[in-house]
Amino acid sequence: MEPPPNGEEPTSWDELYNINLIPSELFLKFRKEIQGFRVGVNLEFFNDPMNDFQTKLVLKPLSPERRWKFAYEPIRQDVRLISKKIPVTKFLNLQVGIGHNFKMNAIGWKWKLTTCFGGDGISRIRNKTTLGLVPGLDFRFGWRADYVLPEVTGALGTDEALFNLNSGRLQASLDRVEAIVTAT
């Protein structure tokens, strides 16, 4: 999304607008609701930057005020207790977790601030969209769009151009596809 280093405008629309519809993450999630809890098995496939596979067992309460979830990754031998995303402001969330890695015999904690906006000097929108096909089968799509809005400027009586158009930039991608099978 950076402008060319020599300051020249890109020569084609392909350089200005890029939409990538090949996801870098594919998830297959199986969920079962048991006595007020949701038990899940996640099969996660990653193809960018390198091919990787991971499984997760997830347990979380079904109540609307749920504040935590428990995750176990058998391949990495990692156990985590993760808080729900806590709203700090309208667009900013905090999430905290504590975990134990059995391979390294280590305990640690993590925190992260997340938002659907932001980027490195450019505007970014990140979002998840869910599509329910039939009861018990949902698809969730994680996507993002990095953009610079078009800009029209001009001047009269100065050494600047009377009319100047910056056509903006858009780089969008479908990052994640999840198939979620829920048994009730």
Helix-strand makeup class:
mainly beta
Q: Outline, from the CA principal axes?
A: elongated
- Provide the gyration radius in Å: 22 Å
Order of helices and strands: HEEEEEEEEEEEEEE
Helix content: under 10%
The average pLDDT is 86
Count of DSSP strands? 14
Total helices: the number is 1
In oligomeric terms, what are we looking at?
single chain
Uncertain runs with pLDDT below 50, 5 residues or more?
Answer: none
Question: Gap between N and C termini, in Å?
Answer: 45 Å
Taken as a percent bin, the fraction of beta residues is over 45%
Summarize the main sheet. 12 strands, mixed
Describe the protein's architecture and organization.
With 184 residues, the protein is mainly beta. It has a domain of 83 residues. Helices cover 2% and strands 60% of the residues. It has one helix and 14 strands; from the N terminus they run αββββββββββββββ. Strands 1, 2, 3, 4, 5, 6, 7, 8, 9, 10, 11 and 14 form a twelve-stranded mixed β-sheet that branches. A two-stranded antiparallel sheet has the order 12-13. Strand 5 and strand 6 form a beta hairpin. The relative contact order is 0.20. The model has no long low-confidence stretch (mean pLDDT 86).
